[in-house]
Amino acid sequence: MKLTNLKSNKAFTLQDAVIAIILILLFSGTIASTTVTIFKIQAGTKVDSVAMLFVVQVMERIDKLGYTEIQDDTINTVVAQMRKDFSIPESFSLKLEIEPDEITKNLVKTIHVQLGYNFQGQDRNISIKTLKVKEFEGETNEK
To answer: Is 126 helix (H, G, I), strand (E, B) or coil?
Structure first.
């Protein structure tokens, strides 16, 4: 009497299929989470570069303004004009602070530029200081 083999070696078993599906799900989950993380990092980098562009534009405008044009009483007007000229969104907070220098007898002002914004629940801030020097308007000793 000949015994027949009930198990065939020619096909996949249910265990083989389940293991293959689990491995595929693990690899695809890892790839998907890595892709999402990469997109978040890229989006954060883009927002940071846009914010830095705004700060650079503000700093260039401050360099073009004269010493007397930047005063405590006109700083809000200057900020409003910069927001309008550079299309800075309301979600970005822009602050300019003037710090007079007592040592140089009001010949130098320190301008503190702060740009704050929120991205993915994180508050981010760019802060830069620059000096504004009063130009001398006297006679020169050129010969």
So the answer is: strand
Q: What are 119's strand-pairing partners? A: 122
Cα 143 to Cα 140: distance, rounded to the nearest angstrom: 9
Q: Looking at 40-87, which runs of residues are DSSP E strands?
A: none
The label of the residue with tokens 């405590």 reads 72
- Angstrom distances, CA of residue 118 to CA of 58, 60, 142: 19, 24, 54
**Distance separating alpha carbons of residues 77 and 120, to the nearest angstrom:** 31
Task: Spell out the residues 6+ positions from residue 84 whose beta carbon is closer than 8 angstroms to its own.
Answer: none
Mean pLDDT of 78-105: 87
Among the ranges given (1-15, 64-78, 93-107), the one the predictor scored with the smallest mean pLDDT? 1-15
* DSSP single-letter state for residue 136: P
* Threshold 0.90, pTM exceeds: no
Q: Helix, strand, coil proportions of the chain in percent (round to 5)? A: 45, 20, 30
Distance in angstroms (rounded) separating the CA atoms of residues 26 and 19 = 11
Distance between CA 57 and CA 8 in Å, rounded?
74
Residue 82 near residue 58, CB atoms below 8 Å: yes
